[in-house]
Amino acid sequence: MDWYPATLTARALAADGLTDLTLDVSRTPLAQAHQRPGQYTWVRLPGHEEGVFAIASAPGTSGQWDLLVKAGSPLPEALIQLPLGTVLEVTRPAGRGFPLDQARGRDLLLFATGSGISAIRSVIESLRQNRDAYGRVTLYFGVRTPSAFAYARDFQSWEQARIRVVATVSQPGASGWQGLTGYVQAHLAEEDLAPGTVAFLCGQKEMLQTVVETLKARGLAAADIHQNV
Questions:
Q1: DSSP per position, the chain
Q2: What is the pTM assigned to this prediction?
Q3: Ranges for the FAD-binding FR-type domain (predicted)?
Q4: DSSP letter string, 13-62
Q5: Confidence band (pLDDT; 50, 70, 90) for 170?
Q6: Rounded mean pLDDT of the chain?
Q7: Residue 83 CB coordination number (10 Å)
Q8: Confidence category of residue 104, pLDDT binned at 50, 70, 90
Q9: Which domains does the chain carry?
Q10: Above 90 in pLDDT, residue 9?
Q11: What is the distance between the alpha carbons of residues 135 and 13, in angstroms, rounded to a whole number?
Q12: Which pLDDT tens digit goes with each residue over 63-81?
């Protein structure tokens, strides 16, 4: 793999255990390299094993890449602690990503659990740039606890962009959560699926399997169901 410099320019807490990092690659050959939402990059720091992260920002965003980093292992912990201005190394975006062009003029269902929202956020930020080119858009987003919703600060702006957010919590406990509970797939039966609907999925394996089976059973073609695992 070829490696390129990326400068850490911003950091923000995205949710419990999740941190949003912004990298600047604008002065490198990678400035326009991010082509499709859902692609990922490898990251390395001296003294740590390389790690792979989905690019959470929209392709072509002025050489700025957002990465959602999950605490708990050595490389993410090191990335979270880096001073702003630190230069690290990244690769060209890789992976097929999501075929957003295939969804033009059609309804789009988005499914994410936990940190899987990073790849789906790239889709959302992409389609917001040309929202009228798509039909109805619904995001099904599931987490364990209410404080685990990454990018919850963006929900309102997504709704304003006519992206319906169906947020559900599987372990609300005594949190006082007043929204939907249970797993993402438990709420799919409520969705009105129009002919030609397209689905993009990223997240926990059981969710992916169950949602794919349910969508196929309800008439979606396998070619219109895309996973980013």
A1: ---EEEEEEEEEEEETTEEEEEEE-TTSTTTTT--STT-EEEEE-TTS--EEEEB-SPTTSTTEEEEEEESSSHHHHHHHHPPTT-EEEEPPPBS----GGGGTTS-EEEEEEGGGHHHHHHHHHHHHTTGGGS--EEEEEEESSGGG-TTGGGHHHHHHTTEEEEEEES--TTS---SEES-GGGGGGG----TT-EEEEES-HHHHHHHHHHHHHTT--GGGEEE--
A2: 0.93
A3: 1-100
A4: EEETTEEEEEEE-TTSTTTTT--STT-EEEEE-TTS--EEEEB-SPTTST
A5: confident
A6: 93
A7: 7
A8: very high
A9: 4-90 (2.40.30.10), 100-227 (3.40.50.80)
A10: yes
A11: 32
A12: 999 999 999 899 999 999 9
Q: What is the rounded CA–CA span in Å between residue 130 and residue 141? A: 22
Exposed, middle or buried: residue 128 (CB in 10 Å: 0-12, 13-18, 19+)? middle
Q: What is the rounded CA–CA span in Å between residue 145 and residue 179?
A: 11
